[in-house]
Amino acid sequence: MASGKETPRQRMIGMMYLVLTALLALQVSSAVIEKFYALNESIETGVTNAAIYNGDRLFEIQKAVKERGNRSDEIALAKNALSLREKTQEMRIYMEKLKTEMIEKTGGYDEDGNLKGAKEETEVEVYMLGTNKSNGKAYELQNKLNEYVAFVSKLSGKSFPKIALDAKDDPIYKNNADQKNKDFAQVNFAQTPLVAAMAVISDLETKVTNMESALMTQYMSDVGRGDYKFNSLKPVVRATSKYIPAGTKYEAEVMMAATSTSQQPLMQVGTQNLSVNSQGIGAYNFLASGGAYNAEGLLKKTWTAQIKVKKPDGKDTVYTVTEEYFVVKPVIQIQSAAQTGLYFNCGNKVDIMVPALGAEYNPEFRATGATVKSTGTKGRVYIIPSSPTTKVAVYNKGQFIGEEAFKVKAIPKPTIEVRVNGQLVNARTGISSLALKNISIKAIADADFAASQPEDCYYKVTEWEIDFGRGRKPVPGLGKMLPTEQQVSMGGKSQNLQDKDMIFVTPKKVMRKNYLGVWEEVKVASTPILIPILNN
Asked: What dihedral do alpha carbons 246, 251, 257, 263 form, nearest 10°?
């Protein structure tokens, strides 16, 4: 019954169920964790390279100022560049310390050098969010990042946008009903595995070093470093990351190591002309496509840029640079009540998600051995198998992501259930002829099938027979009945029945209504179900 107080045992079982459900919902596959780990390592490598590059820029600025006679205005620029470098290093040291402390709080490393707590979420959340904004490290991080942006803006005379945003200010989350009310700490570190939290901090480090790089470039231009000699030119590519999930945007900067504000180079990748800014930096981006991944889930690719500049004698010269990158195979997550297999010719509702693509996920599906129909929700589809094997290829914005194979199961036959006066037939006790009022028949769906496919499991017996037997002969005065409904009244027929007579109920035609509301016939065994008449 639905009413009444629950017993302590019932409350305990209910609580255990809720905890189990939450644990299952929070499970992250080892493949996803490994990809996050690889992505974080790639980002950290990019940050380290950018930091080295920016340090070289500072050295070149100081050297140029000295070579140009230590002009007072340029000395001030060199001091600003040094202050910028020191502030950036201070910020990076702090952020690296956060990652180190998170690793320590989640168990550190095992003897093979792997993170023990790679999937750990609770310790990360406690450390980063704390009990309130006064002791949560993420809130301290947000304040320090905002202070850094304010420092850089003041130093450069330009207004740099904040990089530690609350969800309501972040274009990725501001229109997401589930996320838009979260603050910076909650949206980035709540219920977040260690490796993902590390990647978030590493990404913020990238933004910090990018701001430093932009300002260092400005300082180089201001001290006249742009008046370079052409014989020292070297083409350089700076990519955000060499490891990118298929279907997401690849971004890189193509530049000459020494640029000139007086002449801009012309840059091309294939037949595409790149947009070049005032510092002589070209921007290049495209959607990465998947393909034949290796055993580690990586696909190595390259692209080549041509940079045309004028030599001191006025003639054009072309420099060529080739950059390699790695496409990371995204993990396709299948969420469905039919994870153990799809039912043949049924509308199997399946969620096909690629978490690594995030807001970039705009999937298309192409099936072999099945039809795929949209439900109107992104990533959620009906798969209707038409052959024993089914494969579904996932594309994102036209780019191939991967393919998933599904087992296809036959629809289990329904159980034929016969009732007398609304009660199941008992072959041992039977029913007395005087008590016999009506006979009904139903086709009952298999329990697992009904739970998995509630829109495909409605059955109806449309044709059935009722015969009456006495020994090996029909009961006199009673002919065969062919009901058109699933329940029939016996009326006065029961008066002709004697002790030990038999009633034979035989299903002849069963129909099933599928998720589209279309009826189709189901073949069932025409085996009679016996109802004994026992008057004594």
From this structure: 140
- 357 is written with which tokens? 């693509």
Amino acid residing at 4: G
Helix axis angle, 30-67 relative to 194-222, nearest 10°?
20
CA distance 52 to 92: 13
Tokens of 96: 């690296």
- Pull the structure tokens for residue 74: 């340029």
How many C-beta neighbours within 10 Å does residue 200 have?
Answer: 19
Helix axis angle for 194-222 and 137-156, nearest 10°, is 10
- The span from the CA of 514 to the CA of 330, in Å, is 34
C-alpha span between 382 and 347 (Å, rounded) = 5
For the chain, 536 residues long, the average pLDDT of each consecutive 10-residue run is: 46 43 46 74 87 92 88 89 94 93 90 87 90 86 94 91 90 86 89 88 92 91 58 62 68 69 79 83 80 78 86 75 80 69 90 83 90 89 91 88 88 93 87 91 93 91 93 88 91 87 93 91 91 88
pTM of the model: 0.43
Report the distance separating Cα 375 and Cα 515, nearest Å.
12
> What's at 277, amino acid-wise?
N
Q: For residues 417 and 63, what is the distance between their CA atoms, to the nearest angstrom?
A: 93
Cβ-Cβ contacts under 8 Å for 161 (sequence gap 6 or more): 149
Q: Give the DSSP H/E element, type plus range, for residue 152.
A: helix 137-156
Is the distance from CB of 500 to CB of 534 less than 8 angstroms? yes
Domains of the chain with bracketed CATH: 24-225 (no CATH), 227-330 (2.60.40.10), 332-409 (2.60.40.10), 415-532 (2.60.40)
Instruction: Using DSSP bridges, classify how beta strands 415-420 and 399-409 pair: parallel, antiparallel or unpaired.
Output: unpaired
Q: Which two tokens stand for residue 498?
A: 């004697």
Find the radius of gyration of the CA atoms of the chain: 36
Q: What is the largest CA-CA distance in the chain?
A: 127
C-alpha atoms less than 13 angstroms from C-alpha of 369 in its C-beta half-sphere:
14
* DSSP assignment letter at 434: T
3-state secondary structure of 257: coil
| C-alpha span between 71 and 84 (Å, rounded) | 20
Tell me phi and psi for residue 160, to 5 degrees: -85, 140
Tell me whether strands 399-409 and 342-343 are parallel, antiparallel or unpaired.
parallel
- Residue 170 one-letter amino acid: D
DSSP 116-135: TTTT--HHHHHHHH-SSTTT
Following DSSP, what letter does each residue of 458-521 receive, concatenated?
EEEEEEEEEEEEETTEEPTT---B--SSSEEE-GGGGGG--TT-EEEEEEEEEEEE-TTS-EEE
